[in-house]
Structure to design on (611 residues):
């Protein structure tokens, strides 16, 4: 068993009874460690911009050159503040557990208390809150996982959280994250999924009213389960779920100057080449903005759902044109059923792509029990339609390794369309979101189309307008590539996971997800997507702390024999193209009658890894 060392007070730590925050004693939070992350990661973008502008052969009006040194100066000042934010004297907005709290956690021999997250802060709280006593109401103590598994539909939905069963059937349609994530976890042990997507207040205020009784045979006592849950406990003890506000202030400044630069170059430049440079800068803005959208989508900035969502819709939709509501619905499901052939929308791209022959091979679909012989395909629970192969899909899939990058260059236009579709159908997909944000969705998406149309209309002729649009969207397509490399080459499976130790939460995140090895100073270009394994394990962890999580997760996986795939950006793209090519070859050679079996896949090896 891998022991996760808990932080202990050093000789310089405050004495018991002191209210001073324990910072220097916590691993990874010294004043010398974090500043390098901010200096390298946050100063690189404006520094590169400065070099690019002063050495650029494109004719740029002198009046626009001020756009570069000003943000560099601002980022220098803000970078200094951000680095100091991680020092020994933390301001009230940045907190870690006190010595007293850590002492209490060490004294809890009965396991009645646990570290949880509330508004980003670590809190030491009761693990289980008793439901209010009701006349004639009794609670069971003999529930088995087999019994829970029978309650696996939207209308009859039970989940297990920390060896306790809850009947949440009446809550499914009210769930703020949409009903699909709950349906996909129905009848399962949702302990880890629930912990990583919900604050402490949900355990205290919502769960008790749905309590059914105790489960006798959950995975909670398994050594591997206990060990990997200790990783989350250590992150909480170190206060790493709290966002560094200065880090995000810097991101806002950086985004502001990218947008200002793109608009200024497009409007004020006197040559075609400099106006096209404006389109390129706009692409960089959209890519970097998407990372902030990802942060707010996971409530990883303020950690307040309504606030993060409101700001994300207001600014993300208006400036980027991609619906946050659509993205959250899709992304919530993706995280719960990552790389499931029938359930994960992020790998359902027929007729354009098939990331595995399991998507179209009728023999394998029949073996998995998901083939509809009349439709000759499987039912997508996300898209609510059958996915089947036809002449067009066979033609495209057979050449998908050639088509991948060209399609990524125009993929953003499809996301605009998906956003508008969601805006009209939000009520049936996420009632909570529709109630609070549907009108704002319409207004912001219309606002984006308006300002973008006006900006492009200022270009002198239609050729430049088309070129500007295509260039900006093509370069912004690097974002889609960054997303695809995280999962396209990883293992896929049929149905739902989380049935036992062979496919429990932690293992499944690792075998279906990969990291991109990158320099620390280049983190800004990846926006946290380079740490997809850690992000899938701890989705509410702010991206500036994902490297800290990696330092724990990678050696843990090595110790327990859990797959942990991490390669460079170039290598990850090579693997992606090879994977698409291999599926394309099967499509060509066998006419969608592929060879091989489950026992030959990486998933089989990953799921049966022994610690």
């Amino acid at each position: 068993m891998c022991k996760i060392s808990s932080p202990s007070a050093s000789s310089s730590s405050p004495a018991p009874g002191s209210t001073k925050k324990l910072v220097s004693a916590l691993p990874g939070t010294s004043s010398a460690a974090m500043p390098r992350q901010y200096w390298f990661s946050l100063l690189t973008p404006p520094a590169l911009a400065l070099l690019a502008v002063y050495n650029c052969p494109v004719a740029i009006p002198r009046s626009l050159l001020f756009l570069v040194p000003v943000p560099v100066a601002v980022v220098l000042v803000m970078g200094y503040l951000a680095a100091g934010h991680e020092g020994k004297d933390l301001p009230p907005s940045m907190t870690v557990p006190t010595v007293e709290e850590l002492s209490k956690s060490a004294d809890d021999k009965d396991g009645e208390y646990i570290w949880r997250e509330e508004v980003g802060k670590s809190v030491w709280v009761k693990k289980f809150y008793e439901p209010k006593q009701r006349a004639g109401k009794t609670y069971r103590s003999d529930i088995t996982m087999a019994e829970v598994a029978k309650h696996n539909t939207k209308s009859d939905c039970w989940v297990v959280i920390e060896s306790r069963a809850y009947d949440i059937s009446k809550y499914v349609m009210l769930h703020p994250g949409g009903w699909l994530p709950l349906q996909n976890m129905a009848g399962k042990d949702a302990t880890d999924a629930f912990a990583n997507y919900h604050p402490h207040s949900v355990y205290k205020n919502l769960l008790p009213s749905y309590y059914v009784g105790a489960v006798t045979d959950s995975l909670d006592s398994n050594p591997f389960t206990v060990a990997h849950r200790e990783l989350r406990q250590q992150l909480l003890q170190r206060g790493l779920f709290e966002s560094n506000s200065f880090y995000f202030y810097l991101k806002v400044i950086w985004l502001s100057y990218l947008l200002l630069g793109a608009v200024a170059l497009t409007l004020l430049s006197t040559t075609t080449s400099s106006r096209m440079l404006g389109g390129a800068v706009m692409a960089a803005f959209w890519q970097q903005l998407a990372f902030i959208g990802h942060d707010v989508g996971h409530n990883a900035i303020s950690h307040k759902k309504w606030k993060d969502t409101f700001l994300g819709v207001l600014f993300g939709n208006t400036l980027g044109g991609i619906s946050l509501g659509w993205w959250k619905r899709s992304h919530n499901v993706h995280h719960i059923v990552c790389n499931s052939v029938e359930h994960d929308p992020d790998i359902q791209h027929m007729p354009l792509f098939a990331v595995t022959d399991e998507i179209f091979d009728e023999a394998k679909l029949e073996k998995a029990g998901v083939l509809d012989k009349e439709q000759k395909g499987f039912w997508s629970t996300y898209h609510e339609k059958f996915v089947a192969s036809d002449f067009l899909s066979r033609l495209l899939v057979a050449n998908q390794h050639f088509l991948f990058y060209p399609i990524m260059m125009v993929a953003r236009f499809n996301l605009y369309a998906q956003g508008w579709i969601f805006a009209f159908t939000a009520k049936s997909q996420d009632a909570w979101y529709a109630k609070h944000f549907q009108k704002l969705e319409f207004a912001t998406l219309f606002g984006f189309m308006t300002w973008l149309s006006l900006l492009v209309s200022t270009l002198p002729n239609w050729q430049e307008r088309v070129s500007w649009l295509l260039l900006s969207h093509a370069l912004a397509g690097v974002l889609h590539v960054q997303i695809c490399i995280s999962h396209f080459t990883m293992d896929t499976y049929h149905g739902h996971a989380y049935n036992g130790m062979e496919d429990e939460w932690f293992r499944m995140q690792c075998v279906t997800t990969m990291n991109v090895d990158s320099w620390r100073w280049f983190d800004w270009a990846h926006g946290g997507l380079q740490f997809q394994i850690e992000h899938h394990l701890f989705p509410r962890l702010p991206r500036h702390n994902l490297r800290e999580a990696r330092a724990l997760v990678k050696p843990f996986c090595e110790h327990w024999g859990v797959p942990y795939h991490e390669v460079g950006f170039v290598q990850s793209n090579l693997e992606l193209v090879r994977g698409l090519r291999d599926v394309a070859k099967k499509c060509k050679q066998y006419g969608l009658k592929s060879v091989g079996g489950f026992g030959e896949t990486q998933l089989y090896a990953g799921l049966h890894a022994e610690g």
Observations:
- The mean pLDDT is 83.
